[in-house]
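Technical note accompanying the year-one report. For the benefit of new consortium partners, we illustrate the data format agreed upon in the data management plan: each record pairs a sequence with a structure-token string. No post-processing was applied to the example shown here.
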Amino acid sequence: MKRILGNWLLVLGTVLGALAAANSEKAGRWVDVPAEGGLTGQFLLHPTALSGGEVPAGTELDATTAERLREGGVEHVQISTPPRAAETVAVKGAASIEKRVVADDVVLARKPRALPAGTSLTPCLLLELRESGIEKVLVQGEAGPEEKAVGPPGEFGLGGSVLAADLSYDLPEKIRAGSFLSPERVDRILAAGVAEVRLQIPKTFRFDQWEMRWVFVLAVIVMALGVALKRSALGAAARESAGGGEGPSPARELRELAAGVRALAAEVETLDAAAIHARVDALLTGPCYRIVEGRQAFAARGMGSFGAVMGPFSSGERRLNRAWSAAVDGYPDEARTCVREAVGFLEEAVAALPQAHAAGVAARSL
């Protein structure tokens, strides 16, 4: 019962935590308009209608804007959550822009380029032409040269065409939007003499501004309680297995499984595929299933003992599953081989039980 309740608490805690975490990544959040002053570095996410006009989206909620909103009777506004908002920064040396993220493409220079007539218009070349501001090109048609538009990516419609005349244009050298301004990129911007750039506003996390912070705290508490209940259930299972209680014991089930597979291997040569399937199925749905269900008892003893027993058991279980499949598919020889191979792995698992018990006792005494 404790284990089942612990599982449900873990599920509930995970759901609550996911909901709270998703809220922290929203594009915007609602805040009260300050009674005086403003919020420097915070920008309106949506336009706000006032009797004397409209405060557009992207306006900084500084003291002037806040006063205008108060006069208009606006008490609550939704502000954007950086880094979706951006700001224009004057380039005044490396320190003014380094370690920031570019919001818009930064054009550093334009290099002249010439394409001779007969050049094939590949998708990459068409994208280059579009970025260079070329809207139309003269291509060679069936009836002669004809002018065609360079459309947006995916809609060019000019793949395989060739230029009907020489074409010259300036190819822009850019730092793409979303790029991190490393020292190398900053040096390129300074060398190009760029006056200003659009940069993303760095995102800062503040717990007091997280709308669902207490939901997240509740999720942590619920998950901690679920873990505590599951550990309690594991301890009870381990004590039951070690003490030989009335409940199911994975150790006893493992010995029963090894004995059953050993008996099956002794007579498997005389059995056909249907008989092998029936015998293996009984072992898999009986002691093998109960061992898997009670594996927490081994895990509770310590990772060393868990691996010593469950490692060879898993190998033996896989051989039994292969024997089951081979018998169902009508391959008795393969099934017999797998049954015989399973015997060695299961006997190795049984042999590890005393050492596992000793390792568990030593671990619990530390």
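Partners are asked to follow this layout when depositing records. The CA atoms of residues 46 and 303 lie 55 Å apart.
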